[in-house]
Amino acid sequence: DIQMTQSPSTLSASVGDRVTITCRASQSITRWLAWYQQKPGKAPKLLISDASNLEDGVPSRFSGSGSGTEFTLTISSLQPDDFATYHCQQYKDSRTFGQGTKVELK
Amino acid sequence: EVQLVESGGDVVQPGGSLRLSCAASGFIFSTNWMSWVRQLPGKGLEWVANIKEDGSEKGYVDSVKGRFTISRDNAKDSVYLQMNNLRAEDTAVYYCARDYMVHGYSYGHFDHWGQGTLVTVSS
User: Fold this and answer.
1) Nearest C-alpha neighbor of B9 from the set B20, B22, B1
2) Which of B43, B100, B116 sits opposite A99 (nearest CB)?
3) Helix, strand or coil for residue B41?
């Protein structure tokens, strides 16, 4: 099974900050990786697929990069609406998620 | 607008059974793989099961194999999860999710989710 590890688990930041979240796979997943945003009590929302493909309607301040085993989600300038938990998910072999990264207000 | 509405969550004793339902609308249901994904309390997400457009193929995470069964009724635009021999570790919010598909191919991630239904397994 492919394991996904996100870091950090919690990230404290301020509005306007540049934020980076890392997701590592236990083996190569080429670029078969998605990122989701989840707010408390809500369903996850797909942000990025295929490691760097931004979904329609997602603000351009979000970007994804990486390939193989290491991936990043970057928010170029954190906005109030971005405080949430972010999950990565591989779909190279079955489907597994990272444990999530909570972005909170510093 | 794509909508997925889950129902059937409840409190059940260990060893008990429960059937979750998900009603879909806003898209051609019979052309999509569908999945169930769960979220344990305060923890990450776990894919549970999926089912092909016509129900001919199904997949499960190892921890539920032999206990859970996914099915669908395309005439009712609905997907189901029959959960038997429930354990405390099955306690979670269960989401119905639509697989992301392009030209009839399911990529393995999820472009639409329901709001979830809570299953609590406790004596």
Assistant:
1) B20
2) B43
3) coil
Residue at token pair 């990786």: A33
Residues in A closer than 8 angstroms to B113, CB to CB, are 43-45
Q: Is B30 helix (H, G, I), strand (E, B) or coil?
A: helix
Q: What are phi and psi of A81, to 5 degrees?
A: -75, -10
Residue with tokens 């300038």: A77
Give me the amino acid identity at B12: V
Residue B41 has a pLDDT of 85
Tokens of A80: 């109030």
- The phi and psi torsions of B99 (rounded to 5 degrees) equal -70, 145
Residues of chain A contacting residue B45, judged by C-beta atoms under 8 Å apart: 36, 44, 87, 89, 97, 100
For the segment A21-55, what is each residue's pLDDT rounded down to a tens digit?
999 999 999 999 999 999 999 999 999 999 999 99
Separation of alpha carbons B16 and A62, rounded Å: 44
**pLDDT tens readout for residues B38-88:** 999 888 899 999 999 999 999 999 999 999 999 999 999 999 999 999 999
Determine the Cα–Cα distance for residues B50 and B24; give it in Å rounded to an integer. Answer: 15
List, for residues B39-49, the tens digit of each pLDDT value.
998 888 999 99
Q: Is B111 on the interface with A (CB under 8 A)?
A: yes
Neighbours of B78 (CB within 10 A): 18
In the A/B pair of chains, how many CB contacts fall below 8 A? 53
Chain B residue whose CA is closest to A35: B109
Residue A55 near chain B (CB below 8 Å): yes
